[in-house]
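Quick start: what a row looks like.
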Amino acid sequence: MDEQRVPHWWRSGPSWWRHEERERWPWRSTVLVTAFVFVGSHFAAEEQAGERADLDVLARVLLLLAGLVLLWRHRHPVAVAFGTAAAALVYLGAGYPYGPVFLTVAIGCFGAVVAGHRWAAWAAMGTLWAGHVMVVHWLYQWLPPAGDSAAPWGQEGVVAAWVVAVAALAELVRTRREQWARERAEQAQAARRRADEERLRIAQELHDVLAHSISVINVQAGVGLALLDSDPEQARTALTTIKAQSKEALGEVRQVLDTLRAPGAAPRAPAPGLDRLPELVDQAAGAGLTVEVHGAAPPLAPGTDLAAFRIVQEALTNVVRHSGSRHARVHLDHGGGTLRIRVDDDGPATGADAGGSGNGLAGMRERAAALGGTIEAGPRTAGGFRVLAVLPGTPKGNAR
């Protein structure tokens, strides 16, 4: 069945049922049922006048007891099932009119089945039925009203049918209630999973933005400090680069944080893509890294475009931070529905973290895997380091 066509109340339960689940003391329903039992019993007594005993104080006490005990049906369903059955059995044995008192037994046993105590409910209904058989077929001679005769056995089949119907309905509701509980748990788990995925996405964005920008700023700060006295003009250029890079980083961080403040809102600026690759080349040049770009990417879906940009950005950041090479090459190749991105440097590595930090490589792999792509990273045979990304190159016009 199409989930979109299923009513919300059927998937998560009707509102009245959810309200009753939260209500510790079901006062409203209990008062309504008790009033119905009193009024219905009054009319039943008029209809059965001369056949059954008149309603007296004891009868009204039994009716009140059978109704009010339903207040505890959520907390003590087993006791309520047997309590309503006992009150109804005493009411029946005293010769009072047949009537809606049996509704309290049905509700009590119904609640026991829904709460998972089906055997207690069956035992309570069975006890009431067995007591009814004894009263109307054997004990009637010694019980009121006087001159009463044995009831026909055919009516026992009707009583048994009603018992089975109540039990079957209760089982149906119990099963559906368990299904509602499972669906609510699955919905909560899916919501937590979406929240975790969103946090991971934001963490990746912040890492990629800050790692690249801070690496460039770190290099330029070192240049500025080294040339502050000997070449003030070059130091000024380094400080200008730091200012521009920090401003851009702040803008991208603000854009990422805006998604936290206004979930679902449209971004104020477009997400970066491979069309901003020249900016990456200029930033890398400011950090002392010469980058050659070979090939061009086709128009891509926004998610693929952003992932490709971040992968190139992280790869170049790793060259700046962890490689002794001042030269890198970016190769873009597309065909057969895939985009291949290769970033090479000539090394040598300047530390144990050659090729990038664990978080950087893990972030690239997660971005690629989310799109159904792959990342390979490792030393080249001829020296240096290589990052190779293969992404599904879905054209922008076909993005869904």
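That is the whole record. The chain has a mean pLDDT of 80. The first helix runs from residue 8 to 12.
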